[in-house]
């Protein structure tokens, strides 16, 4: 029943988005993101009822990917993912992903598996039903403005990774950047990988600028945005001194993949 309601909402949404002429891109931009918000809020409210009876569980996040798939479908997004044929779905990973927009999560549905979690900023906890959904999906919240509490959260995350054998999704830039450039990487993800001895799997999401421009409020649905997961996992040494070299190596990998998608190499 839950899935049926969400899909009907998405059908109405995608019809509205696709019938808008291409030259009305600003109207399409606003309508698409309004519909994204509506589907997210309604979907969260529907699944929240189910999760309240079930209780917090990593499996809830896998169930909730249905809402994300509905969101990307109603926005006309069709992610093309490279590297799934080399992806070991039995291996535990710490995924590091570049962060451009809140729609990044729509690209990751096909990589999400149980048990998985993500480190998210504390403010998302208070986003109404969406924040409650994140709680019931056992997301990990971090307040970066408080260094001591942030370190405590990272220590707890390391324990969860080892105890519950979860896959952890992290955005090493720490904030969104929609210019197509990489922000400096924070050390948390790499320190966590060394501490837990879990391999890092880089995931590179190509630049959205070909179909999405937030500054000019332009959006063209139906275009593909590739997600590159072809990079081999990075296995780590126990030596913490490798941390800075690991960060540099991953930055070069991300830059190389982004340059490929932009046609620079």
UniProtKB/TrEMBL annotation:
It comes from Schistocephalus solidus. Keywords: Acyltransferase, Membrane, Transferase, Transmembrane, Transmembrane helix. Its EC number is 2.3.1.51. CDD domains: LPLAT_AGPAT-like. The chain crosses the membrane at residues 6-23, 30-53. This is 1-acylglycerol-3-phosphate O-acyltransferase. One of its GO terms (molecular function) is 1-acylglycerol-3-phosphate O-acyltransferase activity. It comes from the Eukaryota. Residues 93-208 form the Phospholipid/glycerol acyltransferase domain. SMART domains: PlsC (SM00563). Pathway: Phospholipid metabolism; CDP-diacylglycerol biosynthesis; CDP-diacylglycerol from sn-glycerol 3-phosphate: step 2/3. GO terms for biological process: phosphatidic acid biosynthetic process. The gene is PLC1. PANTHER family: 1-ACYL-SN-GLYCEROL-3-PHOSPHATE ACYLTRANSFERASE (PTHR10434:SF11). GO terms for cellular component: endoplasmic reticulum.
């Amino acid at each position: 029943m839950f899935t049926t309601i969400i899909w009907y909402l998405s059908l109405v949404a995608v019809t509205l988005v696709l019938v808008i002429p291409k030259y009305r891109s600003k109207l399409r931009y606003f309508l698409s993101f309004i519909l994204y918000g509506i589907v997210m809020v309604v979907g969260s409210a529907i699944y929240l009822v189910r999760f309240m009876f079930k209780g917090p569980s990593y499996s809830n996040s896998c169930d909730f990917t249905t809402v994300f798939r509905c969101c990307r479908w109603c926005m006309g997004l069709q992610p093309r993912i490279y590297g799934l044929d080399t992806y070991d779905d039995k291996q535990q990973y710490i995924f590091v992903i570049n962060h451009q927009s809140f729609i990044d999560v729509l690209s990751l549905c096909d990589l999400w598996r149980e048990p998985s979690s993500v480190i998210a900023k504390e403010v998302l906890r208070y986003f109404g039903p969406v924040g409650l959904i994140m709680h019931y999906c056992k997301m990990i919240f971090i307040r970066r403005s408080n260094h001591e509490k942030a370190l405590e959260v990272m220590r707890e995350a390391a324990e969860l990774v080892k105890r519950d054998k979860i896959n952890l999704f992290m955005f090493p830039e720490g904030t969104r950047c929609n210019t197509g450039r990489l922000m400096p990487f924070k050390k948390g993800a790499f320190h966590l990988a060394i501490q837990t001895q879990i391999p890092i799997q880089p995931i590179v999401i190509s630049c959205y600028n070909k179909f999405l421009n937030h500054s000019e409020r332009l959006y063209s649905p139906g275009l593909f945005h590739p997600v590159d997961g072809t990079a081999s996992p990075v296995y780590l040494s126990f030596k913490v001194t490798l941390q800075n070299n690991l960060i540099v190596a991953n930055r070069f990998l991300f830059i190389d993949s982004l340059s490929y998608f932009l046609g620079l190499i």
